[in-house]
């Protein structure tokens, strides 16, 4: 019990002594050539880092601001399909509709307007003259198969996953080359029955790679200076400039002629993509415009765009690759019966993205950068202290000179006792005399 009391008392004494300690800096001049040279080399290295990397490379003298932008697009081009891949992709379509078909922007740009992106249809599966009624479900829909003797899958009101409508409770007669039977559903009839082999024969819009898109991009840097604006179209008064120019990043006129073919955009992708293969099942492509502009105090005319593209979806997936969706156009017969044409559209979704930042000289930014980096000079002192106090042969001598312990109990003269000899004075009574201002 006594030992515990003594231990607690000792611990309390240590805590109290530590709490009431005070450390103050002491300057010790060490005349050692090796240590002095090392200290100066470290200081020179830190100063070189501050100026070379922090100020020059990292442009620590600039105030940076993000780019603000807007993008609009206009697509042009037409495609003629003459039946080179057959007409089997047009299900339930009468012969008069299976003629040479011309597709223009109103046909393949769906929807006509989309924020910062646009979709171009390159392939399709068409189901013509669908009317509301009852008909067999698509055989490709899971759990829709049945027989007249077994209609357990066809419970009335059941909607199959990926199906066309609710089941009626009955089973169809055998149909198709495989003589399959499926549940009869209430839907737009006939239901879509796509043949993937026919779809993958090739894109129906065979020259979609030659379609062109005008990308109009306006930028500004409002956080740096109001009025810093620029477009990616050459500033010229020639109204026919865009009609006669061609996009080319190696010349100024070409760089500021943002009329790109879809084939050019796909060719920018790394690793390389084949446009025809991409057009069969579709995909998602990102077109990026980068505006990284330094020294805007000289004028925004020195700021130029950089274009790049990348495939955003994964073409290597085995399940549901590419990009597609369905849409319909509706009609009405003379007797008032509604019908529609259903199109499963495959194509490329182009997503526009504008990135970048601008820089402009700012005195306060430079001062703050210098102040924060000059603090790194303290590293030289730390490195030199480590070498002197822990690595040199005379480290105990230097350590004794650097650290001085001051003990609190006062002596009979009223001054604190200092370990070690006091400096010699002729008359210590002089210390008690007041100092005249």
What does this structure look like?
With 437 residues, the protein is an alpha+beta fold. The chain starts with a helix and ends in a 19-residue tail after the last strand.
Shape: elongated
- Biggest sheet architecture: 9 strands, mixed
Number of helices: 11
Rounded Rg? 41 Å
Ranges where pLDDT stays below 50 over 5 or more residues in a row are: 420-437
Helix/strand order, N-terminal first: HHEEEEEHEEEHEEHHEHHEEEEHHHEE
Distance between the termini: 61 Å
Care to give the gist of this entry?
This protein is of the alpha+beta class and 437 residues long. It is 24% helix and 29% strand.
Q: How would you summarize the topology of this molecule?
A:
Blueprint: H1 2-19, H2 33-57, E1 62-66, E2 68-76, E3 79-81, E4 90-91, E5 101-103, H3 105-108, E6 117-136, E7 167-171, E8 183-189, H4 196-199, E9 212-220, E10 229-231, H5 241-244, H6 252-255, E11 259-261, H7 262-267, H8 275-281, E12 283-293, E13 306-311, E14 324-332, E15 338-361, H9 363-374, H10 378-391, H11 395-402, E16 406-410, E17 416-418
Helix pairs in contact: 2-9, 2-10, 10-11
Task: Give keywords.
29% strand, alpha+beta, 437 residues, 24% helix
């Amino acid at each position: 019990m006594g030992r515990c009391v003594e231990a607690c008392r000792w611990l309390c004494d240590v805590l109290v002594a530590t709490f009431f300690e005070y450390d103050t800096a002491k300057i010790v001049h060490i005349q050692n050539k090796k240590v002095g040279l090392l200290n100066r080399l470290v200081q020179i290295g830190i100063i070189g880092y501050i100026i070379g990397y922090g100020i020059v490379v990292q442009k620590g003298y600039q105030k940076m601001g993000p780019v603000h932008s807007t993008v609009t697009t206009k697509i042009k081009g037409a495609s003629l399909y003459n039946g080179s891949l057959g007409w089997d992709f047009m299900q339930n379509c009468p012969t008069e509709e299976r003629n040479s078909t011309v597709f223009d922007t109103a046909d393949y740009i769906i929807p006509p307007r989309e924020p910062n992106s646009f979709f171009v249809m390159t392939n399709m599966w068409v189901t013509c003259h669908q009317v509301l009624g009852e008909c067999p479900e698509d055989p490709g829909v899971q759990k829709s198969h049945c027989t007249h003797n077994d209609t357990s899958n066809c419970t009335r009101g059941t909607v199959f996953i990926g199906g066309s409508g609710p089941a009626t409770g009955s089973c169809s007669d055998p149909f198709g080359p495989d003589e399959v039977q499926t549940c009869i559903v209430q839907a737009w009839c006939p239901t879509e029955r796509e043949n993937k082999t026919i779809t993958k024969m090739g894109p129906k819009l065979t020259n979609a790679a030659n379609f062109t898109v005008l990308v109009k991009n306006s930028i500004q840097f409002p956080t740096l200076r109001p009025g810093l604006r620029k477009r990616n179209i050459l500033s010229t008064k020639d109204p026919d400039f865009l009609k006669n120019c061609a996009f080319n990043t190696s010349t100024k006129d070409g760089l500021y002629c943002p009329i790109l073919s879809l084939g050019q955009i796909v060719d920018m992708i790394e690793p390389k993509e084949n446009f025809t293969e991409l057009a069969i099942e579709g995909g998602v492509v990102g077109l990026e415009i980068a505006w990284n502009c330094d020294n805007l105090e000289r004028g925004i005319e020195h700021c130029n765009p950089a274009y790049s593209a990348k495939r955003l979806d994964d073409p290597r997936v085995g399940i549901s690759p590419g990009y597609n969706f369905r849409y319909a156009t509706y009609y009405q017969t003379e007797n008032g019966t509604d019908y529609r044409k259903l199109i499963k559209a495959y194509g490329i979704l182009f997503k526009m993205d504008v990135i970048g930042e601008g820089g402009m000289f700012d005195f306060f930014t430079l001062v703050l950068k210098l102040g924060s980096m000059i603090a790194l000079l303290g590293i030289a002192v730390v490195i030199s202290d480590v070498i002197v106090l822990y690595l040199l042969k005379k480290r105990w001598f230097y350590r004794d000179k650097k650290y001085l312990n001051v003990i609190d109990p006062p002596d009979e003269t009223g001054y604190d006792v200092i370990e070690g000899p006091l400096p010699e004075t002729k008359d210590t009574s002089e210390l008690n005399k007041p100092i005249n201002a």
